[in-house]
Amino acid sequence: MTSLERVLLALQGKPQPSPPFTLTLSLYGARLTGCPLIEYYRRPERYLEGQEAVVDLCAPDIVFSPFALTLEAEAFGSELKFLPDNPPNIRKPAIRSADDFIRLPLPDVDSNPSLLYLRESVRLLTGRYQGEKAICGVVTAPVDLPAIVMGIDQWIETLLFSPEKAVIILEKAHRHFVAQANALMADGANFIALPTMFANPQILYPKLIDEVILPSFARSLAEVKGPIVFHHGGNLMVPSLGKYLALPNVVAYAVDHRDSLAEARRILGPDRLLLGNLNGPTLSRTPMDTVLSRVDRILEDRRDDPCFIFATSGADVPFDTPPALLQAISAKIRAVAWVI
After folding, report:
1. Which residue of 47, 107, 137, 194 has the fewest C-beta atoms within 10 A of its own C-beta?
2. How far is CA 243 from CA 210, 214, 218, 236, 298, in A?
3. At residue 339, does pLDDT exceed 70?
4. Which residues are 138's β-sheet partners?
């Protein structure tokens, strides 16, 4: 059975001897191949080499496109800085006002170098693993895009005090998102993952989410030509999970490591795909026995849940995580023998 078949069985809720799994190792491929990050995030062929090394190390069922949302900000004109052991960060936002965002031209997904890097990475991954691994394309949520282009503070201020401008900005973000998401799907991604902050009540007032954010978000998701994984975006998801159940094309929910998987399942019902919830960003500083004990607890919690994919929660697994730890996590999951 291939990894892609395992993922599809989970999506259909069909029992398997052990769950499919993935670890967010977009960044980690650069460590395994010794590739400088300024090259890793510029040359798609080097990214492919890194993901091949990831597959050789721990054989995840899902392989990710570059988890580097800042490259989309760069496509709008933001300046990036490259760190030695992290994905690129924003040095200087493209603009700093709602009016400037409204005037800003949309980048062309067929010619902009930053967007073409993301697209070519998916094409290369598909060429290497088509029919074997599930390929996940990562895209900035349209409700979050203004925050990474003009700054979180400016986007919140616009939403609160200039609602008419926020509507125009959301429409513009919608057009970019649909073009980029559908381009990645056409390039071979099996599904799209959306880390999302600005639909969470921990970030915005619930009324603003209900009346502005979610209607705009739903319109954007409805135009994606493929399945979507709604990602917690670094925030607790379970308290607001019910708000997201009607979003179109969303087939799976990736929850935070602090969320209860059992409670998430209760809210989702038996037939929606659930992913989580090992804390990925802390793996480099957590003892192996503690991590493996957590893996055991997650597996025991979900042993009767066929609509479950074991996954790390949060952003990329850190650069300095020991490879032996990732291999041990993989071996423990593969050794599970659930009764089916």
Report:
1. 107
2. 8, 8, 11, 13, 25
3. no
4. 193
